[in-house]
Amino acid sequence: MPISVSSRWNGASNMTNTTSQATRGGDGLGALIGAKIFIVGAGSGVGRAIASMAAARGAKVALAGRSRDKLDATAATLSGAVLGTYALDVTDRAQVEAALAEHGPYDHIVTTAADLTFGPFTGLTDAQIEGMLASKFWGPINLGRAADKHLAPQGSLLFFSGLAAYRQGPGSSIVGVVNIALESLAAALAIELKPKRVNVISPGVVDAGSWSSMGEDERTAFFADVAGGLPVGRVGEVEDEAHAALAVMENGFINGTVVNVDGGGRVA
Ligand SMILES: NC(=O)c1ccc[n+]([C@@H]2O[C@H](COP(=O)([O-])OP(=O)(O)OC[C@H]3O[C@@H](n4cnc5c(N)ncnc54)[C@H](OP(=O)(O)O)[C@@H]3O)[C@@H](O)[C@H]2O)c1
Q1: Do residues 38 and 109 lie in contact, with contact meaning Cβ atoms separated by under 8 Å?
Q2: pLDDT at residue number 234
Q3: What residue numbers bound the domain in which 187 lies?
Q4: Does residue 12 lie in a domain region?
Q5: pTM of the full structure
Q6: 5 part of a folded domain
Q7: Is residue 13 part of a domain?
Q8: How far apart (Å, rounded) are the C-alpha atoms in residues 149 and 93?
Q9: pLDDT of residue 46
């Protein structure tokens, strides 16, 4: 039976009372001033760039990831904007709940956490597969469950998937699987957690930590090869992704969807 439009909009009346002016139409200017944002993966790459860009727009950020050193290094660049740093594994539901409880409810919760292994499908070890499922499957599930309590009604939850969801190739089998799963999860949660918004950003190849296991020469050659095949003629920078993340947080009408920030990689 088709789902009726009216049943989909049950609960919309709550939104009238709880959604801030800043996220209702307009240009989003100032929407992040004073907003509290919890970022898992803030110790490096895109997560770190989101923390930095959000802080520059007046947000208060909480930084999470497994490595205390990396979080402290990020925090050192953001004086005054840091609510707290949380050395945690996003796989651990209790750790996630405890961290969010300290300064929650948050206006936005973001995860870029990824512990990925690229390599032939038949050669992947159980531990490597578990690491991928832990960071990009169980992590978002734990955050989705925590969002019920620790995310403000007008807030948003943002996951990061990736181009491998659509453009599978040798070595990215499980990476693609976890990425595409996130997109389905976000759609479901946008309905179940309403009026909280839930979205996904799907990056293309970005010069960031995901490629840190490559040697420098190999990485340079890889980026040049990818750039040559993209309409924009370059690989992404972490700021490209962070800018999109802020736009998704600022715009209260982006919901239940995937924003592809990939330089045209999906269509090239
Ligand atoms: N860079 C790209 O080209 C690209 C392409 C497509 C998609 N993406 C996606 O975009 C996101 C950001 O990519 P990136 O290159 O910025 O990645 P990154 O630099 O490797 O950052 C990932 C962060 O996640 C944290 N992390 C990993 N496992 C965790 C866990 N179990 N619990 C908590 N934190 C964990 C890592 O810190 P600790 O090790 O300290 O925990 C790290 O700071 C990822 O989801 C990635 O899959 C990136």
Answers
A1: yes
A2: 98
A3: 25-259
A4: no
A5: 0.93
A6: no
A7: no
A8: 13
A9: 98
